[in-house]
């Protein structure tokens, strides 16, 4: 096995190492989120207090992606990936203090550190692939990006299960200790083995370079913001609360259903190249537009059908969420490929960091709107807001570059 791995091309070995790093990090990230939710719920914290624990996690995602791309272009993506792993170990270690120290501000600080770590790790992994795949191999690039993206989400859902299982078997403190020790070993291996300075620019980028001047990157970033806002405006807060309060689902049923959904969502993401059709040139803006329209139609049908009394809300939501998740997963993989393809070669992390800043801003906006709209107007308002966001995604996708851009080394800035 080891001899076979050593015989692989350097680019493949580095890709496997980056993917392994990303997998291990994501597993701990998903488990940590579930641990914090369940542990503090057991301690008597209400839903609003628990939700506040993740506020800085999402907020710092916006800042980290914007700054992380610039930092990675200056020092190299191998270093930003290793910094992300180290920060996650530090975040886990912060939760190993005596129980009386685990107050909301302290846990929020730990989650902020974890959020920074997560986005440094993600930005580094996605940007590094740009350096590993030759410019004329767009189909291979699409497959590698799709597999990295999909496997991440599948493992995040697995982490939800792992966190809940370990919490019930060995308790909060020992679970955190095991994850911190395990990730520390991965971190040390990464420092030793990930030696290539991926993504480091020939010339040090200036601070104002964090803002992209590429029309393609800016359009795709705005489309990504709207795409993820359309999901989180009904999925993050409104849907779980509705399933629990209106349909009478137990909390364990809600958590298990959403975890399975995330795992299935990740599996579909990893298979997106097969779903959209293999093409040596890779997908382009036209492909993104077609799948964006499909998602808009799906969301529109769910929103309208929820108002018809002939449909049962529970089964409509379950079936609708499954179909929505599959189409959304393909859209997400398409966008993830396009940003790597559109990013300029020298300093790809700048464009990719800017793009994932928009992604994080979409998640944050969708989450805040989800809570506000559900409290003020119910689930139906959240569904229609999702339709509006998807309409904007489709409009922006009309102007994305078509296939001719995929044949060049990079999209002109």
Q: How would you characterize the overall build of this protein?
A:
With 413 residues, the protein is mainly alpha-helical. Helix content is 78%, strand content 0%. It is built from 16 helices and no strands. It has helices spanning 2-6, 10-42, 47-52, 55-75, 77-94, 104-132, 138-170, 172-193, 215-235, 238-245, 251-270, 272-276, 285-305, 313-342, 348-377, 379-398. α5 (77-94) runs antiparallel to α8 and α6 (104-132) crosses α15. The longest helix has 33 residues, at 10-42. It starts with a helix and ends in a 15-residue tail after the last helix. The model is unreliable at 405-413 (pLDDT under 50).
Radius of gyration: 21 Å
Pairing-aware structural class of the strands and helices? mainly alpha
Largest sheet, described in full?
none
**Strand fraction:** under 5%
Distance between the termini: 44 Å
Mean pLDDT reading: 82
Number of separate helices: 16
Helix content: over 70%
How are helices and strands ordered from N to C? HHHHHHHHHHHHHHHH
Catalogue the unreliable spans.
405-413
Structure summary, number of beta strands: 0
Short description:
The protein is mostly helical and 413 residues long.
How are the secondary structure elements laid out?
Elements: H1 2-6, H2 10-42, H3 47-52, H4 55-75, H5 77-94, H6 104-132, H7 138-170, H8 172-193, H9 215-235, H10 238-245, H11 251-270, H12 272-276, H13 285-305, H14 313-342, H15 348-377, H16 379-398
Helix pairs in contact: 2-5, 2-6, 2-7, 2-8, 4-5, 4-6, 4-15, 5-6, 5-8, 6-7, 6-15, 7-8, 7-11, 7-14, 9-14, 9-15, 9-16, 11-14, 13-14, 13-16, 15-16
